[in-house]
């Protein structure tokens, strides 16, 4: 907070200093323009000199000095334009030469140099033959300004205004205008300007008290682009050849960079060289550049330099233009050796820097040498060994090192778009181990998501083993796994990805498909209670789907045995959900689904399988489900499932239905007993057995169960509940009566209607009573609407 107050105070003071200086600049600029309009050239130069004197200030920081500099340069541009027009009209070489000499008598160095440069530019435009001489004169004279800030901006101004005037004629070819210079003159000019600017920039670091070191470093970073512009100008020269760059330009730049011994300057300029010069130049001078990297100061983040160079050349070599270079220059071997040497020589290198270097190498390997998996594998092996040597483990995925490690693991996955290809990198999983549990799971989940997005089919045991080796932490409990890991959203999302992966198992042969599913089932079954709840159900459904594909034997002698084996596998898997997964409702549903699937497949033992699955579901209902609502829902599912099967013989069908009725009779609440018994009655009406040609339509059993339901309903003590149950019974009776159950007589319906009407009158007014009465009225209305079909009933009821 204190630092913020100081910065705010400084900003206010800086604004005041700048405002004062700008007022002077504008006032003198106005007088300069007025003198120019009156053709008083000397007076104009005098006012310009006073205006330029404001650039001598030592009160402004680089940011505010730059704003002042821009205002002054804008006014100098006006002066330059005016002088150019005036002197061009005079067409006298003596006039411009005299003017160039005159401004050299300015009282102080800053105004003198800016005026020399401004007039010198006019001189060069009017007398192109003087360009080479004038450029050399101006760059040498600028040595007179040794103040870092003022000198940097002065030389930047020199470079900017001469941009369009720099000679670029090929060396060895006579220029169109004798004396105008060649590209050699420009190279010498920029090299000298660059060298002097870098010295000024470095000198700035050592001026002022040591306690302001950080402040000076910030200010220097604001000024770095001024120095880098020299290299940009060099790279833009049309006739800068590779030979000249290799023999003269780069050696002089590297000499200046290495000799300055300033970490900020070295790191910035090395990265600048990488970014501005052509890829071909870098390839031709790769060894020289890398050799100079070893001579940089220890404080330089050399990994940034190497990474920038690797990324730049990776992009170049990976495209069509650079494809042939891969064989000519062993880029991977060179950079790999450099990176390893750097890591070994700098024992204090941060973990995130080590990982970042390997990220760049992996990117180079997979993008430029995709066919050589050994290269990428070598990088992951090196990374794993380096982290092991430094005894790094449990890296937090949100730390700098963790983010970099996640990034390097994603590079081959994104590039190959084929997880099976990534699995061929045998040392890839080792690079994942230093992450903590959550980090490993995140990396594995990314692999799974890529597998699903690209719909990579798993067609063999080797494919499944390969994928599982990459996602091991998602398949089973880990030593460093938090106890509450299963409560997180990430855990659930990861299990959903595994479930989706199961549907990518697509073997070409059905027998192989079953072997793959069964093998994965065994692997997933060891995942523990929380995992198998999400991962085993998709296996079961995949087995059911496969079984349905076996509906036709296709002449296979072992067809019956294979289908039976699938259902045995499914039954065992469901059992694991009960015993290990401690689940009830889902296993019951899966048993019933299995019974329905088995009923559709006409193999020799389908009746036995159906019976076994339904009996297992009833066992779950009796032994595992205690909650009344869950039991009611489960019993309804069992009843509906039995209605859908038609392969059971009577001796098997009857015990199952008897168990359903018994379970309904044991329901804790009377109301639930009535509802479940009414549902069970439909089994004797709509149910089918193997011996029957259609529905059973056993009216005697239907009425027997309905009478039992009515007896139970009559035992209810609550008038509202009892009335609700009898209305429900009335609907059930009339449903079977309408469907042709002759055992149900009009007398029974009449008695039920009379009872419900009488009970409705006795109910105390309430919202619930109104709802029940409305239900009763709807039922009676339905009976009235159908009276023409049943005249006997209509007469009996007198409706």
From TrEMBL:
Indicate what this protein is called per its UniProt record: Vacuolar protein sorting-associated protein 35
Family membership = Belongs to the VPS35 family.
Domain of life of the source:
Eukaryota
| Keyword Membrane belongs to the record | yes
Higher taxonomy = Eukaryota, Metazoa, Ecdysozoa, Nematoda, Chromadorea
Keyword set, alphabetical order: Membrane, Protein transport, Transport
Membrane topology summary? Peripheral membrane protein
Biological process GO annotation list?
A: intracellular protein transport; retrograde transport, endosome to Golgi
Report the GO terms under cellular component: cytosol; late endosome; retromer, cargo-selective complex
UniProt-listed InterPro entries? Vps35 (IPR005378), Vps35_C (IPR042491)
Q: S-adenosyl-L-methionine: is it a keyword of this entry? A: no
Location of the protein in the cell: Membrane
């Amino acid at each position: 907070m204190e630092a913020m107050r100081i910065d705010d105070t400084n900003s206010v003071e800086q604004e005041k200093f700048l405002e004062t200086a700008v007022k002077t600049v504008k006032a003198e600029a106005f007088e300069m323009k007025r003198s120019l309009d009156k053709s008083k050239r000397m007076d104009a130069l005098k006012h310009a000199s006073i205006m330029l004197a404001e650039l001598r200030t030592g009160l402004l920081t680089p940011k505010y000095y730059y704003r002042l500099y821009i205002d002054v340069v804008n006014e100098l541009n006006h002066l330059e334009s005016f002088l150019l027009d005036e002197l061009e009209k005079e067409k006298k070489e003596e006039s411009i030469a005299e003017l160039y000499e005159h401004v050299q008598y300015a009282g102080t160095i800053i105004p003198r140099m800016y005026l020399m440069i401004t007039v010198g530019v006019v001189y060069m435009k009017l007398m192109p033959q003087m360009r080479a001489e004038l450029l050399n004169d101006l760059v040498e004279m600028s040595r007179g300004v040794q103040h870092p800030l003022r000198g940097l901006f002065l030389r930047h101004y020199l470079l900017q205004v001469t941009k369009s005037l720099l000679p670029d004629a090929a060396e060895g070819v006579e220029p169109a205008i004798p004396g105008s210079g060649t590209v050699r003159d420009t190279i010498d000019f920029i090299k000298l300007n660059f060298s002097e600017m870098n010295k000024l920039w470095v000198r700035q670091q050592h001026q002022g008290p040591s306690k302001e070191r950080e402040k000076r470093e910030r200010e220097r970073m604001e000024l770095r682009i001024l120095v880098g512009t020299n290299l940009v100008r060099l790279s833009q020269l049309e006739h800068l050849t590779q030979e000249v760059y290799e023999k003269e330009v780069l050696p002089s730049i590297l000499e200046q960079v290495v000799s300055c011994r300033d970490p900020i300057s070295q790191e910035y300029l090395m990265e600048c060289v990488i970014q501005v010069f052509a890829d071909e130049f870098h390839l031709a001078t790769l060894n020289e550049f890398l050799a100079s990297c070893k001579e940089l100061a220890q404080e330089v983040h050399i990994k940034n330099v190497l990474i920038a160079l690797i990324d730049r050349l990776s992009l170049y070599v990976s495209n069509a233009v650079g494809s042939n270079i891969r064989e000519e220059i062993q880029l991977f071997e060179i950079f790999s050796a450099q990176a390893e040497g750097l890591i070994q020589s700098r024992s204090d290198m941060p973990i995130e820097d080590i990982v970042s270097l390997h990220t760049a190498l992996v990117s180079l390997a997979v993008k430029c040498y995709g066919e050589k998996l050994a290269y990428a594998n070598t990088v992951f092996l090196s990374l794993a060994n380096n982290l092991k040597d430094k005894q790094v483990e449990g890296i937090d995925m949100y730390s700098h090192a963790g983010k970099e490690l996640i990034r390097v693991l994603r590079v081959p996955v994104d590039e190959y778009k084929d997880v099976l290809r990534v699995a061929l990198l045998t040392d890839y999983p080792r690079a994942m181990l230093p992450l903590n549990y959550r980090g490993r799971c995140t990396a594995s989940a990314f692999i799974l998501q890529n597998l699903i997005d690209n719909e990579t089919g798993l067609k063999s045991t080797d494919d499944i083993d390969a994928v599982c080796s990459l996602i091991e932490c998602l398949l089973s409990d880990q030593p460093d796994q938090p106890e509450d890991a299963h409560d997180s959203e990430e855990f659930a999302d990861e299990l959903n990805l595994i479930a989706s992966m199961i549907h990518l198992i697509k073997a070409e042969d059905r027998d192989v498909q079953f072997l793959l599913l069964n093998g994965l089932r065994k692997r997933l079954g060891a995942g523990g209670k929380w995992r198998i709840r999400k991962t085993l159900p998709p296996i079961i459904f995949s087995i059911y789907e496969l079984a349905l594909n076996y509906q036709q034997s296709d002449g296979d002698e072992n067809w019956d045995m294979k289908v039976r084996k699938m259902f045995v596998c499914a039954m065992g898997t469901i059992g694991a959900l009960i015993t290990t997964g401690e689940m009830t409702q889902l296993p019951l549903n899966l048993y019933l689904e299995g019974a329905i699937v088995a009923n559709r497949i006409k193999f020799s033992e389908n009746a036995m399988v159906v019976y076994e699955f339904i009996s297992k579901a009833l066992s779950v209902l009796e032994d595992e489900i205690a909650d009344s609502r869950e039991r009611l829902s489960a019993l309804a599912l069992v009843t509906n499932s039995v209605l859908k099967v038609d392969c059971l013989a009577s001796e098997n069908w009857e015990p199952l239905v008897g168990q359903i009725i018994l379970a309904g009779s044991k329901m804790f609440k009377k109301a639930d007993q009535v509802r479940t018994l009414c549902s069970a009655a439909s089994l004797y009406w709509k149910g089918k057995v193997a011996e029957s040609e259609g529905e059973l339509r056993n009216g005697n059993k239907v009425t027997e169960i309905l009478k039992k339901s009515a007896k139970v309903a009559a035992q209810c003590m609550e008038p509202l509940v009892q009335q609700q149950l009898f209305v429900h019974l009335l609907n059930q009776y009339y449903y079977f009566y309408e469907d042709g159950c002759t055992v149900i007589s009009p007398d029974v319906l009449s008695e039920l209607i009379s009872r419900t009407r009488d009970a409705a009158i006795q109910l105390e007014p309430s919202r619930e009573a109104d709802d029940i009465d409305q239900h009763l009225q709807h039922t009676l209305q339905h009976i009235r609407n159908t009276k023409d079909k049943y005249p006997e009933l209509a007469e009996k009821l007198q409706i």
